[in-house]
């Protein structure tokens, strides 16, 4: 081959999806494909397959296996001339190495793919029985079975049949195979066949007409004595026949096996007799059967053997199936069984488990079956063993929301398609998503994902499992509303007891109260009640996803009672999906946000911006502008500050709601992965809001007492977390006040005015009202509580020159002007810079003093009885540890490292890392601990409605903190372990950098 042609062919092969173009070139240039190597349709067809390399390799093997030149030429000619065969054959070869092996062993079986008549497109049991008719022994049965399977796979990979039709065909082929196997067993033992009537009942996916390519075929055997035969003799004969049937299908021969036949769903499982009479079956189910056994019987279907006996079995047991929902603890039993399935998945596999994992196929099946068992008692239209048919019937009957049903249907079909294509490759029983990229690529291409198949596959898989995880439990809620709504006579409704059980299973501690709330919200024939009935099934699911569903529902009722007559409220929730979910998250996440909302429920409107803009924090300039405008309209200072506090309450709610939604995630966007970003947003928003509130309060007080001009220039300096832009929801405003008399004003008059301003600001911001107070803490001023509340700039200068202690220099690291006279604030900053960033840094005496103060604080200030390891502020590796370490860097090196001259902890830490004062790993450890401790403090305030530095002890509150931090129900212990582990690592770094020689 010439170099130019090689390069051209190589590129063309790459474009057509080959991953090993060199090997493909060799095969295309080989003798088997020589007559057609230049035919463009072959390359196009190979490129359309799931795995062009695999398809080409399989085709060459098939050609090599042909018996003589004529057969070889016939295959090639048909392949090029007949597009249906080309698509089917190459599609199978590119998707299934196992079927390629079969064709190589049985090279004439490709003829099964040539016919393209309408009756071949959707064969049923009859057609498959004809396909298996010549099989007289287990080996020939396997060959015939694979030939039939070949045609099913061809229709599947070419899109002739959808996933539901493919699953039905596989079940029909299994039915025909069971019948053929029973016929072989009966022919082998005609005496046994004559002694009994034996029926084979398909269960599971075979019974439900939704089988996989490779799956255990679940069955139950029922037998009766033939005329003139005793029951004991008949059961012995039937057991031999049933055992032989199972071996015929399950045992491995030179042609492999078909699939295992599993009879463990029978009464007493593997400990019970393999075959029972109908009366014995009935007696067991009437007396001993567990809830899951009735759930399993939903899919029972007679498929082989004595048809009349099989139908008699189904007819006898069907009434018992539809009474199962009346059993005590029915919902709890079903839920427990689902949890047990998940718990038994190996930890190494759970994230790859397509069938049994969270958001997998079994979640859909369990949810549908639960609703069938409840509502199928009175609605016979729900009695289908096929999951998708049952889901469609549930939606048509109003038991499941149509949109939810459509999304579950789409997800289930995608997941089943993945499962089919994974199994088809090797014809092995597996439900694990492969980890190898080449396997993911083939799987993605087989599902029509061609741009970046592996990446697109994982993304679509995660999207669909996410849909299932969010929706499968919601399917339980719609009937709860029916239980309390005014329904037409004869319509299905839950009994109060069944509704109570369902609510308990879904996490409600007070189901009676929950039902009262539902009745108050959803009963009646008003438009309002109708909209509530639409909203509540979804809202209830979101409430149940929280640590306190009862509080979520109660709070929703309160908000609805307050805003029910407001025309925009329910319309907002109904028409903007983000608003309803955001509200549900906010109302069930703790006390703070609902308390803020209840004081002015119209703030619900903030949740309604579909793109999330309604929850974005407002910039300080806009906040200040709004507050100052409100103050300007007020008649006096008290009214002005009341308006400012109202804005503060609304904006605190906006910040809390955004924090909760970002921490929980929504159906359209996952939880914020960057925990530090969440902390920074809250800190900046609350700090900006506090600054704007102080600015408005200052304006109100000055205007009320002095008109436009105060006798002295006045500035407020933020300290501590306030100056660092790190305020939490429950933080006081740490400040110091500075003033400077106006020209010609007596110093005593100026000081009196300044002190009066401070006193009035503090009073007005703490007046009892519906709005949360803002406490001003000035204890970080010179001389602390013993010193004057306000000083002039000259007084500060004199004090700091003569008396300043090292702890005051440390406190000033976070000083930043926040309100009042900007020029005065700037000059105060210039005054303190030499103190907080001392030239040449700190001497060793000062460093020892800081370390001594820190050690004393750790021993003296920790509350009695508190667990030090879980105290977010003073505990080892907590906020104080990280902040003092960072501040020591700033005091020692701020004079020479401009990046350290910031009031913000995380910025200073990053600057210290950039300056080489600590390693990147040490900085990351400290940052992670500081962010986590801050998140915990924010969580405690959100959950309890009051500030705290330790984890709550009440289980629901602790669970709510965990939920905010990303831990699912039942994992509070993991959260505490993770906190201890994170802070323990941080403390090790602090020991080295703060107390050791690392500074």
What does this structure look like?
This protein is mostly helical and 999 residues long. It has 45 helices and ten strands. The strands form two sheets. Strands 1, 2, 3, 4 and 5 form a five-stranded mixed β-sheet that branches. Strands 6, 7, 8, 9 and 10 form a five-stranded mixed β-sheet that branches. The protein starts with a helix and ends with a helix.
Number of strands: 10
Number of DSSP helices? 45
Beta content comes to 5-15%
Q: What is the rounded distance between the termini?
A: 69 Å
Task: Give the helix/strand layout.
Layout: H1 3-15, H2 21-28, H3 40-47, H4 52-64, H5 69-81, H6 83-95, H7 97-105, H8 118-121, H9 125-132, H10 138-157, H11 163-188, H12 190-195, E1 196-202, H13 204-207, E2 217-225, H14 231-250, E3 261-262, E4 275-276, H15 278-287, H16 291-297, E5 301-305, H17 307-321, H18 330-343, H19 361-375, H20 387-396, H21 402-426, H22 437-446, H23 453-471, H24 478-484, H25 496-505, H26 511-522, H27 527-544, H28 549-563, H29 567-575, H30 577-588, H31 592-598, H32 620-633, H33 637-664, H34 675-706, E6 712-718, H35 720-723, E7 733-741, H36 747-766, E8 776-777, E9 790-792, H37 793-802, H38 806-812, E10 816-820, H39 822-836, H40 844-860, H41 879-893, H42 905-914, H43 920-944, H44 955-964, H45 972-995
Parallel strand pairs: 2-3, 2-4, 7-8, 7-9
Antiparallel strand pairs: 1-2, 1-5, 6-7, 6-10
């Amino acid at each position: 081959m010439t170099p130019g042609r090689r390069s051209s062919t190589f590129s063309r092969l790459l474009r057509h999806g080959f991953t090993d173009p060199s090997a493909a070139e060799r095969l295309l240039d080989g003798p088997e494909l020589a007559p057609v190597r230049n035919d463009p349709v072959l390359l196009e067809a190979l490129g359309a397959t799931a795995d062009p390399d695999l398809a080409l390799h399989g085709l060459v093997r098939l050609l090599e296996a042909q018996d003589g030149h004529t057969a070889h030429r016939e295959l090639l000619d048909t392949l090029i001339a007949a597009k249906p065969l080309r698509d089917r054959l190459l599609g199978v070869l590119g998707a299934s190495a196992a079927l390629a092996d079969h064709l190589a062993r049985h090279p004439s079986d490709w003829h099964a793919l040539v016919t393209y008549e309408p009756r071949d497109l959707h064969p049923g049991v009859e057609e498959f029985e004809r396909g298996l008719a010549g099989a007289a022994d287990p080996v020939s049965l396997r060959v015939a079975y694979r030939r039939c399977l070949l045609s099913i796979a061809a229709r599947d990979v070419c899109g002739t049949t959808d996933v539901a039709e493919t699953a039905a065909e596989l079940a029909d082929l299994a039915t025909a195979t069971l019948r053929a196997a029973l016929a072989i067993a009966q022919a082998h033992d005609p005496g046994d066949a004559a002694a009994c009537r034996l029926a084979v009942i398909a269960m599971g996916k075979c019974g439900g007409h939704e089988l996989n390519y490779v799956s255990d075929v679940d069955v139950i055997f029922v037998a009766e004595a033939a005329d003139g035969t005793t029951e004991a003799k008949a059961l012995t004969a039937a057991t031999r026949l049933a055992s032989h049937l199972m071996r015929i299908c399950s045992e491995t021969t030179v042609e492999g096996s078909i699939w295992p036949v599993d009879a463990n769903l029978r009464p007493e499982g593997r400990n019970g007799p393999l075959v029972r009479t109908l009366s014995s079956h009935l007696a067991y189910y009437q007396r001993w059967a567990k809830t899951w056994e009735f759930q399993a019987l939903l899919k029972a279907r007679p498929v082989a053997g004595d048809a009349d006996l099989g139908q008699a079995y189904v007819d006898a047991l069907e009434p018992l199936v539809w009474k199962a929902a009346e059993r005590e603890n029915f919902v709890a039993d079903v839920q427990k069984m689902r949890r047990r399935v998940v718990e038994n998945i190996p930890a190494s596999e759970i994230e790859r488990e397509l069938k049994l994992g969270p958001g997998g196929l079994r979640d859909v099946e369990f949810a549908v079956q639960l609703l069938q068992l409840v509502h199928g008692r009175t609605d016979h239209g729900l009695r289908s063993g096929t999951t998708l048919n049952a889901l469609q019937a549930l939606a048509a009957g109003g038991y499941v929301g149509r949109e939810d049903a459509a999304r579950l249907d789409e997800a289930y079909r995608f997941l089943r398609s993945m499962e089919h294509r994974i199994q088809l490759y090797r014809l092995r029983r597996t439900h694990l998503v492969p980890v190898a990229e080449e396997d993911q690529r083939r799987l993605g291409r087989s599902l029509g994902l061609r741009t970046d198949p592996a990446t697109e596959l994982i993304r679509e898989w995660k999207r669909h499992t996410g849909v299932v995880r969010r929706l499968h439990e919601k399917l339980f809620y719609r009937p709860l509303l029916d239980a309390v709504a005014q329904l037409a006579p004869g319509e299905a409704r839950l009994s109060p007891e069944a509704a109570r059980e369902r609510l308990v299973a879904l996490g409600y501690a007070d189901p009676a109260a929950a039902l009262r709330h539902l009745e108050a919200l959803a009963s009646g024939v008003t438009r309002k009640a109708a909209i509530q009935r639409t909203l509540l099934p979804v809202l209830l699911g979101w409430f149940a996803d929280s640590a306190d569903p009862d509080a979520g529902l109660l709070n929703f009722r309160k908000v609805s009672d307050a805003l029910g007559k407001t025309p925009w409220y329910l319309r907002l929730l109904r028409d903007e999906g983000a608003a309803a979910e955001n509200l549900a998250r906010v109302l069930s996440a703790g006390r703070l946000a609902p308390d803020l909302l209840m004081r002015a429920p119209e703030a619900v409107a903030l949740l309604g911006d579909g793109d999330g803009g309604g929850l974005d924090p407002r910039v300080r300039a806009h906040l200040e502008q709004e507050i100052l405008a409100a103050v300007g309209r007020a008649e006096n200072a008290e009214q002005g500050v009341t308006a400012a506090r109202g804005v503060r309450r609304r904006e605190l709610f906006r910040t809390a709601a955004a924090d909760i939604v970002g921490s929980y995630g929504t159906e359209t966007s996952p939880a914020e992965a960057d925990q530090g970003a969440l902390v920074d947003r809250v800190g900046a928003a609350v700090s900006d809001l506090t600054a704007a509130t102080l600015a408005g309060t200052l304006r109100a007080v000055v205007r009320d007492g002095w008109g436009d001009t105060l006798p002295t220039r006045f500035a407020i300096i933020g300290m501590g977390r306030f100056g660092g832009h790190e305020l939490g929801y429950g933080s006081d405003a740490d400040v110091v006040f500075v003033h400077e008399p106006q020209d010609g004003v007596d110093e005593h008059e100026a000081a009196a005015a300044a002190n009066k301003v401070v006193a009035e600001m503090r009073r007005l911001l703490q007046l009892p009202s519906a709005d949360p107070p803002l406490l001003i803490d000035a204890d970080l001023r010179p001389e602390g509580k013993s010193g004057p509340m306000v000083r002039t700039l000259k007084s500060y200068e004199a004090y700091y020159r003569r008396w300043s202690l090292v702890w005051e220099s440390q406190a000033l690291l976070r000083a930043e002007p926040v309100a009042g006279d900007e020029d005065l604030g700037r000059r105060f900053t210039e005054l303190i810079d030499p103190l907080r960033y001392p030239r040449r840094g700190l001497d060793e005496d000062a460093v020892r003093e800081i370390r001594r103060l820190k050690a004393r604080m750790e021993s003296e200030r920790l509350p009695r009885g508190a667990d030090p390891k879980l105290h977010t502020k003073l505990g080892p590796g907590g906020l104080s540890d990280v902040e003092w370490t960072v501040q020591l860097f700033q005091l020692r090196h701020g004079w020479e490292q401009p990046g350290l001259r910031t009031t913000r902890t995380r910025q200073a830490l990053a600057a210290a890392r950039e300056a080489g004062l600590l390693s990147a790993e040490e900085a990351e450890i400290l940052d992670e601990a500081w962010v986590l401790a801050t998140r915990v403090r924010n969580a405690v305030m959100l959950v309890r409605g009051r500030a705290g530095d330790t984890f709550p002890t009440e289980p629901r509150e602790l669970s709510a903190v965990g939920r905010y931090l990303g831990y699912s129900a039942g994992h509070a212990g993991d959260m505490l372990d993770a906190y201890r582990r994170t802070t323990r690592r941080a403390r090790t770094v602090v020991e080295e950098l703060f107390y050791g020689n690392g500074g």
